[in-house]
Structure formats: C-alpha cells, structure tokens
Q: What sequence folds into this?
C-alpha cells in the first residue's frame, strides 16, 4: 500500500485541484489572443448596429466593400434597446471590439459628453458636402452648433463625430386612395372622424411607454407650439401649448384610434396600415420600406402617401430627426480604415446601390431623383422634411432620463390614467429634478 | 351500486377532462410556436390562422443561415458543454471528500450550506462585480467568461446531486480495490466513476439545460457573435419597427429542441438524480 494516499493528502490535492480550476479563466485568458494590434489595413472592421430595417441595407452592401477593398465588414446586430447599453459599456471600458457603431441621433449628446468617439473632421479630414443637408452634419456634431448647449459642454469647439447613414425623419402617412393630404392637424382630426369605421381606425397612436410614445407625440407637441425645454433649458412641458397638444393626441385623436393605443408600438402600427385597417399616422421611413411598401406583406402598396408633418396651431409642421449615424469609437484601433468605410458609404454611386437595397439616403440628388420616386414614394416627403429642417430631440446627455419621464407620463395620458395636465405636470416636475441634479438651470 | 358506479364514472370524466384541459394549456403554446415557425412573413400579415396555409421552412433557414444564428448555436453548445465539464469536475473534487472520507460533520455541513447559498444568490447581485472581474482579466466577449459564471452558479446543483449519488455507492467497493493494491486515484477512476455514471449523466443534463437557457450574463458579458449565445440572438428579433414572429418562433423551436433531446436521452438518469439521497442522510 505504498502508493495509497492518506485522507490528508487527498484533501490537500483536492484543494490544489480546486484552486487550479478557479484560476482556469485567468490562465486561459493569458493564453488568449487578447486585443488586436493596430494595423494600417485591417482584414476586418466590426460594426455595432441596430437590428432591423435600419441595418438591413448596410448588411447587403458590405459585400461590395470587401470585393473592392479586401476588407471584410462584420455587422454585429443588437436590438434597439440593447445597443445603447452595449455601446456605453464598450465606451466606458475603452474596448476595441467595435471599429464603427451605429447611433440613434439622440445618443450623440451622451457619447459626445463622454468623449467616446473619434472626431471625423480633425482626425480623418471629413468636410461638408453641399449635396447633403446641413442638418445631417449638425446632428452629428458635438457640442451642437445651434440650440441650447449643456452647461458642461459650453466653450468646447464643435467637431463632427457621426455621419448619418439612415436618413430617418419622422413624417406622416395617410390613405391617399380615400382623401387628399391633410394640411393641418385639424384636418387630420376631421379625416380621422370621417373615415373611422368598424375595424378601420381613423388614426393610429404609437402609445407604448417611453421612446415609442415620445417619438410619436413630439412632432405634435412642437407643431402646437409646445416643447420640452426652451433655449435656456427651462422645462416647458406644463405650458398651456404643451398641454393642449397632449390633450389633442390623448383625447381628441384617441376617439378614433385603435384599441389599446397605450400598448401599440411601431410594429403594430405598420401592420395595421399594411393590412388596410388604418387610415393615417405618423411614420418613420424604416416602417415604409420594411412593411407598408413591401409588396410581400402589404395590401395597401400604392394606396398610401407620405407628407411632412402637418401644420399645427403654431403655423408650423415640425418633423423629428431620427437619423442613424456611423461613428468611430475611441477604442477602435482601426480608425483610419473605419473612416474610409464611412467615406465609401457616402459616395453617390454607393449610396444609390444602398438605396436599391432598401437604404434610406441623405443625398438631395438621390432624394429628388425622379427615376427613384416610383420605387420610393416617400423620397419627396423626406427631401421636403430635410429642407424644412426638422427638430432634433433636446441635445442633453440627460435625454435618457428625460425621455423616460416624458414617455411614461405620455403613456399614462394615452391610457387615460392621467389627465393631460396631470401627466405633463408630473413629467415636468421629474425632469426639473433630473436637470437640476445634472447641473442645468432648472 | 349503480349510483356508486355513476359517481366513479363522473369522477373519471372530470379527471380526464381536467387532464385534457391541462394538457391543452400545456401543449397549445408549443403547437402555436411550431405553427408560427412554419408560416411565411406574408402569411403572418394576413388573418390569423390555426394551421399554416403554405408551410415553409424558410424561417429556419433565415434564422440559422441568413441571420447567422448557427454560430450562436455553436457557441451555446460549446459554452454549455464546457460548463458541464468544469462543473462536474469541481463538483466531484468537492463531493468526494465529504462523502467518501472521514471529515468533521461541521465541514461537510458547512460545504453543503455554502453550495446552497450560492444557488440562492440572485444572479443580478453578482453581475456587476463579475463584469468588473471579466474586464480586469480581459476575457470580456470571450466564451470563457460565460463558462466561469455558469459553472459557479450550477455548482450547487452538481454538488447536491453528486453527493446523493456518491453516498449510495458502498464504501466497501473502494476499500476492496485499495486492499487489492489500487491507490486512491485508481479506485476513484476505476471503481467509483463508473458506478457514479448515471449520477454524472443526470447532473450533466440539468447543468447543460440551465446553462442553455441563461440570458442575463450572456447579454452582458458578450458583444459579438464570437461569443454570443443563442438566447442573446433570439431577443434581437424584436426590432424597433417589426417583430419577426416567424423567425422568432423558429429560433424558439431550435432552442427548445437541443435540451429536449438531451432530456429524452437522459430522463431515466434525471429522475434518479433528482430523487437520490433525498430520503436518507448518510
């Protein structure tokens, strides 16, 4: 029994084995490849993208880039709600997982304030192109070149950090086989009343809490003269104009809306339009290309028209920017190659090919190209919306918290749980606290 | 006599009806999932139908190849298999001494209670510190990060199940091997392990299944398809403007099939694994 282990020996060896397993991750990590070293011409660029109609065309054109340059572009998709969190996490860690990132334009203040992106103008020589609307460059610039600037960002020199690749601007759609285009929100209401019928809704409210209802209601709020902030960051949600706008949406239009509008999101709205059960609503270009004008699913192709947001009592019809931009994270070790890819995407010929794959362009020459109008019936309205200079959501790094308060209160108003006045007072109070705590004038 | 028979018949009918309703409630969502996975996008935009009008496997092709989920499927299998190996290995290292050697009862109870406490720990309490550790070790977005945390969280199951199995194997068998000249390692490998096979199989099946369906850590600790697991991909089918129901249903069927097959193969061991040692404390 010379080789027999004693119990003491066995326990000691078991402890050593256990410790070995505990350190296994560290050992394997040390043996791993680690992060890539910088390279002038990488073999691959990794793009963090939003999953859906917004990144679908991008995925279709990256093959062309590889055939022309030899560089593979890997598009890594995340759902809308997760992409922002994933990017923040990546930026905070200065991680090099992504060479490019798609960003919804309201995220620019957060990323700009964090210093998370590489400047495209000073680092990579990007200049403004006269064929691309000025507002497209403005929305990718931080600090914002006009409008109120967050206190912490005042005095900093603006730089371009993102270029739009999805020219989303919120517009309006209606059944053009039934009526002429509404010129004002009053006409929207009268048409809603006129065409509302059993299983055919006069208006579709995208009323799901937070981002959906916020996006749906802000163009109405602005067109009625309301706002979230004034030019000095003073909260305006409980002003009479704002409350009138909310009352219009959540009481007057709601009479002709689909059942349960407080749970309706864009997918439900597009479906109702596509199956011919709705008359009108606001709309994003992504819904048009992916659903309403998709002949494989839509029963109303050719029966829907698209116009800029109708005018409100303020005399203006203000659409909302929802551009998706491409930026280069500071952690990327392939900044120059990533910038080359953005420049490639912006070339007119490449953008035409991108449009052929369902992409939403930003070049005026493409938006106003008559040969593309029949296949893309919303181009004219989109060009007009860009020309009218749509509003962007307030350029504050606190936008996430602001949208949560506003979108939650709006949802309660749509559901009928709060009166328009109570909802806006609640949202205004919460937002004042958030902004005050973040150092903004309250 | 007749009334008693009638009462029995009524009771039988009620039981069968109750079981039928329960069966329907259980099976219908599964049927709906499979039926939806066989519908085209165009069909989903038409009126809702109980049966697919034009059944198609396109959603499966879309999920696995067009969306590239087969890579995530491969990652899931890799991560879960590695988790099973690590968990069982560590589980055996911990369980063997407390079941086969003379250790103070307080140590045995302490180890078992510690293992149990791990299971009661809500994952959300660990996610932030673990994320920090992962970043420090530079294993963010690598499968090893998931294998580590999955092994930790599944260790209690393995310990408690293996404890029951090992305790059932007579000590005399090992002692006979030792008397015949085998050392402790040989007797463990040649005598104990083969006898503990069913227990290991049961523990492996459960650990694999739990790791397979984990979502929170997979979402936070991964960034690209290099390490993302299948559940992370599935949730991406709810997009901002569209819920891709048929693809999501196809992904659900695929996600369900792997652990289901494993359960079918290992169900005999699992029942034993879940009941062994629950009556008797050795």
A:
């Amino acid at each position: 029994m010379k080789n027999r282990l004693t119990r003491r020996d066995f326990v000691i060896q078991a402890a050593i084995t256990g410790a070995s397993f505990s350190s296994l991750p560290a050992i394997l990590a040390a043996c791993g490849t680690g992060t890539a070293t910088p390279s002038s011409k990488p073999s691959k660029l990794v793009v963090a993208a939003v999953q859906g109609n917004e990144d679908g065309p991008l995925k279709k054109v990256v093959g062309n880039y590889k055939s022309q340059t030899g560089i593979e572009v890997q598009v890594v998709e995340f759902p809308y709600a997760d992409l922002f969190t994933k990017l923040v996490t990546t930026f905070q860690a200065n991680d090099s997982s992504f060479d490019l990132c798609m960003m919804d334009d309201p995220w620019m203040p957060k990323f700009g304030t964090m210093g998370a992106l590489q400047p495209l103008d000073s680092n990579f020589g990007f200049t403004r192109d006269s064929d691309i609307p000025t507002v497209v460059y403005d929305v990718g610039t931080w600090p914002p070149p006009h409008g109120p600037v967050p206190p912490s960002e005042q005095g900093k020199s603006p730089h371009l950090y993102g270029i739009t690749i999805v020219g989303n601007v919120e517009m309006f759609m209606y059944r053009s086989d039934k009526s002429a285009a509404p010129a004002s929100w009053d006409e929207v209401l009268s048409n809603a009343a006129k065409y509302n019928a059993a299983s055919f809704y006069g208006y579709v409210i995208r009323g799901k809490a937070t981002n959906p209802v916020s996006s749906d209601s802000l163009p109405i709020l602005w067109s009625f003269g309301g706002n979230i902030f004034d030019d000095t960051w003073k909260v305006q949600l409980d002003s009479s104009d704002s409350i009138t706008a909310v009352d219009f949406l959540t009481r007057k239009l709601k009479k002709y809306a689909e059942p349960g509008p407080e749970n309706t999101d864009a997918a439900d709205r597009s479906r109702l339009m596509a199956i011919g059960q709705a008359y009108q609503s606001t709309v994003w270009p992504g819904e048009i290309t992916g659903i309403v004008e998709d002949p494989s699913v839509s029963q109303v192709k050719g029966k829907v028209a698209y116009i800029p947001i109708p005018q409100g009592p303020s005399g203006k019809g203000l659409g909302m920017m929802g551009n998706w931009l491409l930026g280069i994270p500071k952690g990327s070790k392939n900044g120059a190659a990533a910038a080359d890819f953005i420049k490639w995407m912006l070339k007119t010929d490449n953008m035409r090919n991108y449009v052929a794959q369902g992409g939403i362009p930003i070049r005026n020459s493409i938006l106003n190209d008559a040969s593309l109008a029949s296949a893309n019936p919303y181009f004219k309205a989109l060009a007009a919306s860009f020309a009218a200079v749509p509003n962007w959501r307030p350029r504050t790094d606190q936008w996430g918290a602001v949208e949560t308060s506003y979108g939650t209160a709006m949802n309660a108003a749509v559901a009928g749980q709060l009166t328009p006045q109570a909802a806006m007072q609640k949202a205004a109070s919460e937002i004042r606290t958030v902004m005050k705590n973040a150092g903004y004038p309250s | 006599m007749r009334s008693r028979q009638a009462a029995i018949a009524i009771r039988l009918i009620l039981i069968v009806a109750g079981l039928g309703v329960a069966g329907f409630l259980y099976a219908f969502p599964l049927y709906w999932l499979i039926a939806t996975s066989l519908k085209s996008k165009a069909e989903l935009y038409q009126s809702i139908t109980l049966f697919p009008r034009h059944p198609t496997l396109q959603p499966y092709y879309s999920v696995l190849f067009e969306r590239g989920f087969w890579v995530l499927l491969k990652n899931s299998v890799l991560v879960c298999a590695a988790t099973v190996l690590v968990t069982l290995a560590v589980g055996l290292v911990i369980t063997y001494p407390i079941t086969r050697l003379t250790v103070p009862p307080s140590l045995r109870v302490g180890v078992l209670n510690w293992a149990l406490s791990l299971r009661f720990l809500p994952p959300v309490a660990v996610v932030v510190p673990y994320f920090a550790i992962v970043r420090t070790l530079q294993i963010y977005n690598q499968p090893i990060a998931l294998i580590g945390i999955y092994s930790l969280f599944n260790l209690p199951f393995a310990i408690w199940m293996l404890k029951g199995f090992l305790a059932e194997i007579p000590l005399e068998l090992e002692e006979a091997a030792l008397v015949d000249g085998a050392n402790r390692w040989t007797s463990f490998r040649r005598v104990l392990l083969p006898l503990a096979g069913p227990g290991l199989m049961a523990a492996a099946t459960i650990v694999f299944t739990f790791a397979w369906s984990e979502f929170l850590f997979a979402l936070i600790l991964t960034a690209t398809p290099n390490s993302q697991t299948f559940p992370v991909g599935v949730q991406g089918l709810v997009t901002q403007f569209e819920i891709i129901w048929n693809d999501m249903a196809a992904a659900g069927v695929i996600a369900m099939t792997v652990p289901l097959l494993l359960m079918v193969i290992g169900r005999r061991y699992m029942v034993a694994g879940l009941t062994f040692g629950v009556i008797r404390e050795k």
Q: What stands out?
A: The two ends of chain A are 83 Å apart (CA to CA). The longest helix of chain A spans residues 420-437. Residues 44-166+322-382 of chain A form a domain with the D-Maltodextrin-Binding Protein; domain 2 fold (CATH 3.40.190.10).
